[in-house]
């Protein structure tokens, strides 16, 4: 960033040109602001770039752009400007606008400045546009950096959440305690079923003992990713213990609804885990499933019943046909 800012310093000629023409350009500010406001309103229709912005966010965007127009023409650089540009980039991220939007804003400014400078002699136009382009590139860089920092914080947030497992990023047991009763209540209202499944590895302790905790953690992260890829976005995936995971699948009519999922999971689970370039590890998975409201239990007992079914599957792993079993009362 410092190298870029050094390269964007004004020459004496550019500084003079900006001072000479700033007042005339500022007189266009109201016209430019109104034109942008009309354009932004048009872009809020369904499918357009600003469709996600509510009235408050749109007002903030218009105010930010209007202030930035003035700042671009200020002959004296405000030491607080970098922080404001960082905050602008963060706002774009919060509003769901990609970094391309920052470039789009700069292009809009450039078009307005070029329209004004087009009537000037070349000797005046060149240093003026040089100064303005340097300002635009400088502010672009700060805004993109703000966007990037906000994106990085958003990616890191799940790991810091009290309802997230820091290793895998999945929801944890505390989240399950909150969300499973809600899923059961939705099932009652919709007259549909909920599958609650508990699963874990049949020999995870040996992996940690033989290859170390770091390898075990890598396997758990990969396993979590496989589960998320296999399930619907609406399904609940929870790491409830060391190598124990819970799945909550809503809006089912019966076990036949998850037959394809079970086949897909079986294929995923059969793929070995790469511990290194030369070392692979594979271990069977056992899973127990219970179906609510066929199993008319509360959330805690449904988990208990699913664990019981899982233990029965583990007990028959030498001769079992499937890695999963259904709780039978």
Q: Largest sheet, if any? A: 5 strands, mixed
Strand order of the largest sheet: 2-3-1-6-7
Written as H for each helix and E for each strand, in order along the chain, the element string is HHHHHHHHEHHEEHEEEHE
Question: Number of DSSP helices?
Answer: 12
What global shape is seen? elongated
Low-confidence stretches are none
CATH architecture of the largest domain: Orthogonal Bundle
Number of DSSP-assigned strands: 7
Task: Specify the helix fraction band.
Answer: 55-70%
Q: Please identify the top-level CATH class of the largest domain.
A: Mainly Alpha
| Rg for CA atoms | 29 Å
Number of domains: 2
CATH homologous superfamily grouping of the largest domain: Globins
Structural class by secondary-structure content: alpha+beta
State the end-to-end distance: 66 Å
Please state the average pLDDT score.
86
Strand content: 5-15%
CATH topology of the largest domain: Globin-like
